[in-house]
Amino acid sequence: MASLKQTMEQSLLKVAQTVEQQLDAELEKLENLDSDDLEKLREQRLKEMKKQAQQQQEWRVWGHGEYTEIPEEKEFFEVTKKSKDVVCHFYKSDSPRCKIVDHHFKILCKSHLEARFCKIDVERCPFLTQRLGIKIIPTIALIKDCKTKDYIVGFTDLGNCDDFSTEMMEWRIAQAGVIKYSGDLLEPPVEGKRTKNFALGGAGKKQTIRGRAADSDEDDDF
């Protein structure tokens, strides 16, 4: 047991020494830069910042940064052509759970400018709804490069509850690679940050749908 402990300590020490050597090498490289090298680094950084600013401006022109509604099917295909990453909420106006999705998307669209957040009324777009096989409301389509990568159907993947956090929604969307995510994709966020006392016209209450009992906890069939 003592031998194993010593081996582990030696391995950790080697790793630490390697990291330290790499840091020393990087610091030495920076210290040896002359004024011309520093100017090149500065110019490169300015170009990168300018490119990022132009990209963000282009995204905003295309509707990124806002949570908007797509009024008709034809526009849906235009949106997916212009925007590389699209998060689309298929909703019904009388669904309380769809209002919960609206709440989270209004927050996420601001912090994830790289993706277009939008929604579309399934009752106004029957062809698209049928083509994508939308049967449960709410359904969120995660689209990348004009291809549907994944679907979030109902709230099963979000803790199977109505008071999940915006962080949980963000983590689930990130699974499809349509938004940038700095956390651990293998582990969901701590649910101690759930949306507390969230209420929008009866959100979270059970509905009678197609003759089901009023205490059913399933999502709405479409």
Structure characterization notes:
- This is Thioredoxin domain-containing protein 9.
- Residues 73-156 form the Thioredoxin domain.
- The protein has 222 residues and is α/β, with parallel strands linked by helices.
- The chain has a single domain (60-221), classed as Glutaredoxin, CATH 3.40.30.
- Helices cover 44% and strands 15% of the residues.
- The strands form two sheets. A five-stranded mixed sheet has the order 1-3-2-5-6, with helices on both faces. It has a two-stranded antiparallel sheet with strand order 4-7.
- Strand 5 and strand 6 form a beta hairpin.
- It is flat.
Topology diagram in text:
Elements lengths: L1 H30 L3 H27 L5 E3 L3 H10 L2 E7 L4 H16 L4 E6 L4 H6 L4 E2 L1 E6 L2 E7 L12 H9 L45 E2 L1
Parallel strand pairs: 1-3, 2-3
Antiparallel strand pairs: 2-5, 4-7, 5-6
Protein name: Thioredoxin domain-containing protein 9
Pfam family, one: Thioredoxin
Keywords: Coiled coil
Strand neighbour order, sheet with most strands = 1-3-2-5-6
Given as residue ranges, the uncertain stretches (5+ residues, pLDDT < 50) are: 192-218
- The gross shape turns out to be flat
Q: Into how many domains do the coordinates divide? A: 1
**Helices and strands, in N-to-C order?**
HHEHEHEHEEEHE
Estimated helix fraction? 40-55%
- Beta-strand percent range: 5-15%
- The CATH architecture assignment turns out to be 3-Layer(aba) Sandwich
Specify the number of helices: 6
Q: What is the makeup of the main sheet? A: 5 strands, mixed
Radius of gyration: 24 Å
Helix/strand-derived category reads alpha/beta
| CATH superfamily membership | Glutaredoxin
How many β-strands, per DSSP? Answer: 7
* CATH topology grouping: Glutaredoxin
Straight-line distance between termini: 62 Å
Mean of all residue-level pLDDT scores: 80
